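S2.1 Query sequence (Transferase hexapeptide repeat containing protein)
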Amino acid sequence: MKAFFKVIADFSAKILVVPLYAVLIVGESFIKSDQMFQGCSQLLSLIPGIPGNYLRRQFYCLSLAECHNDCCIEFGTRLNQHGIELGRRVYIGTNCCIGLCRIEDDVMLGSNVDIISGKTQHSFDRLDIPMREQGGELVKIVIGEDCWLGNSSVVMANIGRKSIVAAGSVVVNDVPPFSIVGGNPAKVLKNRLPESVSDRER
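Output structure tokens follow.
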């Protein structure tokens, strides 16, 4: 019975977000950037509770490069690029800001997590031009499967699978798989694998 009601809720949510998705498609024919998408994401982020979770999930299933019907995106969370990919059973907590990234299966994000689109998003080499006019390059960050990013962490580099990022950490360098990292900048505090595990299994 629970599965039946979930199917009905998903279908109803999809019907409700189709008009917003249509507005997005039309708007993007005039505005060649992610601004329309960001506006839709900001609007949907304001809907609280279970209805908000259903509406956000269905909208992102329609509009993202990849999104599965078993993810959960909580209140206040904004996604900034169409190219974001969300794997299966991804959980994203409240008030997160998600840049260009691939979040693989079974990843958990706490509240207030920022995933920034790499370290070259803003150029700052020249002093005769304001930084906002120097451009930059977005890099797709990869968060490996079964990772846990603690509250208020900031991530601008890849996270290897089955790793843990401590709350409040700032990740500026790639994190090896099976690591526990913490601090600013984040450093490896522990390897989750027992010493008896072979190199092949690592």
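The chain has one domain: 2-191. The longest strand covers residues 187-191.
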